[in-house]
Write a structure and sequence with these properties.
This protein is of the alpha+beta class. It is built from three helices and three strands. The chain binds L-tyrosinamide. L-tyrosinamide binds next to strand 1, helix 1 and helix 2.
């Protein structure tokens, strides 16, 4: 001991921020077939048929359903890929992203 040690300062270091997360949201429409929506959810979001069918039905009944949560870039890429699938087949299937609070 030299008598000159200082106590650690009360922490002024900012805590590492948690990465912000973005929701991918599936929107209902009147035209896209249910089986098609389920297949897109399975392909893009790697869901089982049971999971995808549940999400599809919730969107169908309520108008929208949160599919999954990712970092911003992954959420936007998946929402675009899934929306493009529908467009390729002439369906108005739509996915959006929204920042999680
Ligand atoms: N409402 C569509 C139908 O009755 C099915 C559907 C469900 C479409 C969910 C989009 O996000 C959706 N064929």
């Amino acid at each position: 001991m030299t008598g000159t040690e200082t106590l650690p300062k009360a922490s002024t270091k900012p805590k590492p921020e948690r990465p912000k997360l973005w929701k991918v949201i599936l929107l209902n429409d009147d035209y896209t077939p249910r089986d098609f929506v389920t297949a897109v959810l399975m392909a893009v979001f790697r869901m089982t048929e049971a999971q995808a069918g549940g999400v599809m039905l919730t969107a169908h009944k309520k108008g929208a359903c949160v599919v999954a949560v990712y970092t911003k870039e992954v959420a936007e890429t998946k929402a675009n890929d899934a929306t493009d699938y529908g467009r390729q087949y002439g369906y108005p299937l739509a996915f959006t992203t929204e920042r999680e609070e």
